[in-house]
Amino acid sequence: MVMHILVVDDLPTMAEQYAYDLKRTGGYVVSVSHRAEEALDLLTREPIDCVVLDLEMPEMDGFDFLRRFRGLALDTPVIVYTGTGSYDRCIQAVRLGA
What we know:
By secondary structure, the chain is of the alpha/beta class. The chain is 45% helix and 19% strand. The radius of gyration is 13 Å and the shape is globular.
C-alpha cells in the first residue's frame, strides 16, 4: 500500500518541490495544501498517513495547526520544518504533537 502524504506550506514553490521529491524518491501519493485551515479540512475527509508541515504561514501558523490537529484525535504523524526556527520553537512543536 502506498503512503499518502500531505504537504502544508503557504509557498507554492516550496510545497510543490517537497511533493515532487516525495513522489520521485519515495513513490508516495502526495497532496498539497497552501493553507493550514484547508489542510485540517482535508484531514477530516481523506485518509492521510503523514503530514509535512511548515511552521511559518500567514493566517494560521503551524503551531495553531498543531493545536487544532490535536483536537481531531487523529493518529497521523506530523513532521515540521521551518526556515526561521530555533531550538525553543522545535521543542514547542514537539510538545504540541509533532
